[in-house]
What does this fold into?
Amino acid sequence: MSDIAKGSATLTLEGSNRAAELPMLTGTLGPAVVDIRRLYNDLGIFTYDPGYGGTASCESKITYIDGDEGVLLYRGYPIEQLAEHSSFLEVAYLLLNGDLPTRAEHAEFERGIIRHTMLHEQLRSFFNGFRRDAHPMAVLCGVVGALSAFYHDSLDINNPEHRRISAFRLIAKVPTIAAWAYKYSIGQPFMYPRNDMSFAENFLYMMNAVPAEPFKGSPILTQAMDRILILHADHEQNASTSTVRLAGSTGANPFACIAAGIASLWGPAHGGANEAVLKMLEEIGHVDRIPEFIARVKDKNSNVRLMGFGHRVYKNYDPRAKIMQRTCHEVLGELGIKDDPLLDLAVELERIALSDEYFISKKLYPNVDFYSGIILKAMGFPTSMFTVLFAVARTVGWISQWKEMIEDPLQRIGRPRQLYTGAPRRDYVPASARD
Ligand code: ACO
It folds into this structure.
């Protein structure tokens, strides 16, 4: 039983007169936290929080989410304003450094990133080791992990210059690796990065261009790509970011940590959700079949979820989903797609779900992935590349969070405890006595 007093919370163990006074810490926004670091020393007990839904694992100044109000801020700036007025590299600077850059700082940052877009030529041969039908996330994870074998000159995590150059290398090279993973899967030549293009335009170029023809970009699609990258750039202490921090807390190098983040992002409950949304829409097939599908989702025994709905933190409309919905209409308009059956299905599914008591009572709203799959499919991305694209954007958030953690004087190795429910101590029984 806890009793929150001003500045501290007192935890009293019922049935004993033992109590601990635990300090309360307050941030600039969001709920206060109880500092339980001394709890085990004082009372000999742990806290229990599977999934960490009520636990602040670190102090951070990067991203703030108010899930009840549907608010997302990067370094204090609302995501809507950044999506409307900023660019992905400006947001990258903001997340890494804390403030928006001056024009000179922005130009220098951009020059620094684009100088690192090429891959070591020897890395090309890594791709040949993969089967052609390998999932591009498997390729991305492997090749990003392998970067640490190429950059011995920047692996000292305690050296600020090494941290800076590793961040630049990751932000710049992950799009090249991602695009090459795709080109490899379809048997087309790798396209080398074009440093005269913006970050988003260059990525679309490496994905879509072929050496035999001139490349025609589209400003609307480039802007949509830039916006998608901004929306996915960071999201507080989600599963993949926590994975990066946990791996980094051991002193592992940043390339290895980002590879761990990519592995964590791959799951369908996290970055794999937009791929799952499209599969779900294709499986439903027609608006007439929505009621039957919704009934399956509501059936406790079916294990079917409405993909692209629900979020651990947002119990309101995900602010990114609203921007995605608008972008979706812009992209389909630019591509001249007037009637997209999947979009029609998504809009109707959303309408029905938002008026259904099951979803209302559980506060399940569309998340960022509900519309992103439709946009990416219309732009020509195969579904297997959706999560890869997410990783391209999130690399900025991961490396910003990793850098913040390394620079935090309170940083310790991440080492959770457990509630053990296995067998108590018992003695070994020889096999002959077990029959
Ligand atoms: N469809 C149907 N029911 C759902 C859904 C959903 N998408 N999401 C949650 N619920 C229900 C659960 O069955 C549960 O019901 P119960 O209380 O009757 O048991 C209740 O809502 C709470 O669900 P939890 O799984 O406890 O919520 P949690 O916070 O752990 O899960 C998650 C969040 C994993 C995102 C979940 O909502 C989900 O699986 N959504 C679909 C996958 C998805 O879109 N993921 C993308 C997330 S955004 C991102 O990673 C970029």
Summary: The beta strands are 2-5, 8-12, 19-25, 33-34, 63-66, 71-74, 77-78. The two ends are 48 Å apart (CA to CA). Residues 269-270, 273, 297, 305-312, 362, 364, 367-369 surround acetyl coenzyme *A (CB under 6 Å). Confidence is low (pLDDT under 50) at residues 1-5.
